[in-house]
Amino acid sequence: MQLMQDDEQDYGIAQEYQIPDEMWTEIEPILLELCPPKPKKKPGRPRMSDHQAMSAIYYLLRTGCQWKALPRSLGARSTVHDRFQQWREGGVFEALWREGLLQYNEEKGIEWEWQSMDGAMTKAPLGKKRWEYRGNRRGHRTQSDGQR
Protein backbone atom coordinates (compact mmCIF):
# COMPACT_ATOMS: atom_id res chain seq x y z
CA MET A 1 0.00 0.00 0.00
CA GLN A 2 1.36 3.38 -1.00
CA LEU A 3 1.63 5.97 1.76
CA MET A 4 0.29 9.42 0.99
CA GLN A 5 2.44 12.49 1.29
CA ASP A 6 1.26 15.36 3.50
CA ASP A 7 0.38 17.60 0.55
CA GLU A 8 -1.69 14.95 -1.30
CA GLN A 9 -5.47 15.00 -1.01
CA ASP A 10 -7.53 11.89 -0.32
CA TYR A 11 -11.07 12.13 -1.65
CA GLY A 12 -12.05 8.52 -1.05
CA ILE A 13 -11.45 7.46 -4.65
CA ALA A 14 -8.70 5.50 -6.35
CA GLN A 15 -5.49 7.40 -7.05
CA GLU A 16 -5.82 7.06 -10.84
CA TYR A 17 -9.02 9.13 -10.72
CA GLN A 18 -7.40 12.01 -8.86
CA ILE A 19 -5.57 14.94 -10.39
CA PRO A 20 -1.81 14.40 -10.00
CA ASP A 21 -0.02 17.14 -8.07
CA GLU A 22 2.15 17.99 -11.09
CA MET A 23 -0.97 18.59 -13.16
CA TRP A 24 -2.59 20.68 -10.43
CA THR A 25 0.42 23.00 -10.27
CA GLU A 26 -0.20 23.78 -13.95
CA ILE A 27 -3.99 24.09 -13.62
CA GLU A 28 -4.13 26.34 -10.55
CA PRO A 29 -2.52 29.49 -12.05
CA ILE A 30 -4.83 29.35 -15.09
CA LEU A 31 -7.81 28.86 -12.82
CA LEU A 32 -6.92 31.76 -10.55
CA GLU A 33 -6.26 34.05 -13.51
CA LEU A 34 -9.53 33.35 -15.34
CA CYS A 35 -11.90 32.71 -12.41
CA PRO A 36 -10.55 34.07 -9.14
CA PRO A 37 -12.64 33.14 -6.09
CA LYS A 38 -15.18 35.80 -5.16
CA PRO A 39 -15.07 37.15 -1.61
CA LYS A 40 -17.90 35.87 0.59
CA LYS A 41 -20.61 38.44 1.26
CA LYS A 42 -22.20 36.64 4.19
CA PRO A 43 -21.16 33.92 6.61
CA GLY A 44 -21.90 30.29 5.87
CA ARG A 45 -20.19 27.15 4.77
CA PRO A 46 -16.59 27.49 3.68
CA ARG A 47 -16.06 27.41 -0.07
CA MET A 48 -15.10 24.03 -1.55
CA SER A 49 -11.46 24.09 -2.57
CA ASP A 50 -10.79 24.51 -6.27
CA HIS A 51 -8.57 21.43 -6.12
CA GLN A 52 -11.42 19.30 -4.78
CA ALA A 53 -13.89 20.68 -7.35
CA MET A 54 -11.47 20.07 -10.22
CA SER A 55 -10.76 16.57 -8.91
CA ALA A 56 -14.49 15.85 -8.94
CA ILE A 57 -14.76 17.10 -12.54
CA TYR A 58 -11.70 15.05 -13.48
CA TYR A 59 -13.35 12.00 -11.89
CA LEU A 60 -16.52 12.57 -13.93
CA LEU A 61 -14.53 12.88 -17.15
CA ARG A 62 -12.38 9.83 -16.43
CA THR A 63 -15.22 7.51 -15.38
CA GLY A 64 -18.03 8.87 -17.54
CA CYS A 65 -20.42 8.66 -14.60
CA GLN A 66 -23.49 10.86 -14.31
CA TRP A 67 -23.57 13.93 -12.09
CA LYS A 68 -25.98 12.13 -9.77
CA ALA A 69 -23.49 9.27 -9.34
CA LEU A 70 -20.64 11.53 -8.16
CA PRO A 71 -19.26 10.12 -4.89
CA ARG A 72 -20.16 12.33 -1.94
CA SER A 73 -16.53 12.24 -0.81
CA LEU A 74 -15.75 14.51 -3.79
CA GLY A 75 -18.27 17.10 -2.66
CA ALA A 76 -21.88 18.00 -3.29
CA ARG A 77 -22.76 17.38 -6.93
CA SER A 78 -24.62 20.70 -7.13
CA THR A 79 -21.53 22.58 -5.95
CA VAL A 80 -19.28 20.72 -8.39
CA HIS A 81 -21.73 21.37 -11.23
CA ASP A 82 -21.95 25.08 -10.34
CA ARG A 83 -18.16 25.32 -10.34
CA PHE A 84 -18.03 23.45 -13.67
CA GLN A 85 -20.48 25.93 -15.21
CA GLN A 86 -18.56 28.90 -13.78
CA TRP A 87 -15.26 27.63 -15.17
CA ARG A 88 -16.80 26.72 -18.52
CA GLU A 89 -18.22 30.23 -18.90
CA GLY A 90 -14.90 31.71 -17.74
CA GLY A 91 -13.00 29.86 -20.46
CA VAL A 92 -10.94 27.72 -18.08
CA PHE A 93 -11.34 24.46 -19.97
CA GLU A 94 -10.54 26.08 -23.31
CA ALA A 95 -7.40 27.61 -21.79
CA LEU A 96 -6.39 24.24 -20.33
CA TRP A 97 -6.93 22.59 -23.71
CA ARG A 98 -4.82 25.28 -25.41
CA GLU A 99 -2.03 24.92 -22.84
CA GLY A 100 -2.11 21.15 -23.22
CA LEU A 101 -1.75 21.48 -27.00
CA LEU A 102 1.16 23.89 -26.65
CA GLN A 103 2.90 21.64 -24.14
CA TYR A 104 2.39 18.60 -26.36
CA ASN A 105 3.74 20.59 -29.31
CA GLU A 106 6.89 21.43 -27.34
CA GLU A 107 7.43 17.83 -26.22
CA LYS A 108 6.37 15.81 -29.27
CA GLY A 109 5.58 18.28 -32.01
CA ILE A 110 2.29 18.84 -33.80
CA GLU A 111 2.12 18.96 -37.57
CA TRP A 112 0.05 22.15 -37.68
CA GLU A 113 -0.06 22.33 -41.47
CA TRP A 114 -1.46 18.83 -41.92
CA GLN A 115 -5.10 18.25 -41.07
CA SER A 116 -7.44 15.37 -41.65
CA MET A 117 -11.15 14.77 -41.47
CA ASP A 118 -12.88 11.43 -41.45
CA GLY A 119 -16.46 10.44 -41.99
CA ALA A 120 -18.70 7.75 -43.40
CA MET A 121 -21.97 7.90 -45.29
CA THR A 122 -24.05 4.80 -45.85
CA LYS A 123 -27.56 4.04 -46.98
CA ALA A 124 -30.02 3.28 -44.21
CA PRO A 125 -30.89 -0.43 -44.28
CA LEU A 126 -34.61 0.23 -43.78
CA GLY A 127 -35.08 3.19 -46.07
CA LYS A 128 -38.33 4.86 -47.08
CA LYS A 129 -39.09 2.29 -49.81
CA ARG A 130 -40.19 -0.35 -47.30
CA TRP A 131 -41.48 1.73 -44.39
CA GLU A 132 -42.97 5.17 -44.22
CA TYR A 133 -44.78 7.01 -41.52
CA ARG A 134 -48.44 7.49 -42.40
CA GLY A 135 -49.47 9.16 -39.16
CA ASN A 136 -52.48 6.98 -38.42
CA ARG A 137 -54.52 7.73 -35.33
CA ARG A 138 -52.83 5.17 -33.14
CA GLY A 139 -49.33 6.37 -34.08
CA HIS A 140 -48.37 3.01 -35.63
CA ARG A 141 -46.04 2.71 -38.56
CA THR A 142 -47.54 1.05 -41.58
CA GLN A 143 -45.99 -0.54 -44.63
CA SER A 144 -46.05 1.63 -47.74
CA ASP A 145 -48.16 -0.93 -49.62
CA GLY A 146 -50.98 -0.46 -47.12
CA GLN A 147 -50.44 -3.64 -45.07
CA ARG A 148 -49.83 -3.51 -41.40
Keywords:
148 residues, mainly alpha, two-stranded antiparallel sheet, 4 helices, 39% helix, disordered N terminus
At a glance:
39% of the residues lie in helices and 3% in strands. The chain has 148 residues and is mainly α.
User: How much beta, percentage-wise?
Assistant: under 5%
Rough shape? extended
- Total helix count? 4
The span between the termini is: 65 Å
Query: Into which percent range does the helicity of residues fall?
Result: 25-40%
- Spatially, the strands of the biggest sheet line up as 1-2
Q: How many beta strands in the DSSP annotation?
A: 2
Mean pLDDT: 82
SSE string: HHHHEE
What radius of gyration results from the CA coordinates?
Answer: 24 Å
Main structural class? mainly alpha
Describe this structure in words.
This protein is an all-alpha fold and 148 residues long. The chain has a domain at 15-38 and 47-107. The protein has helices at 21-34, 50-63, 77-89, 92-107; strands at 131-132, 142-143. Helix 2 (50-63) crosses helix 3. The radius of gyration is 24 Å and the shape is extended. The protein starts with 20 loop residues before the first helix and ends in a 5-residue tail after the last strand. Residues 1-8 have low confidence and may be disordered.
Layout of SSEs?
Blueprint: H1 21-34, H2 50-63, H3 77-89, H4 92-107, E1 131-132, E2 142-143
Antiparallel strand pairs: 1-2
Helix pairs in contact: 2-3
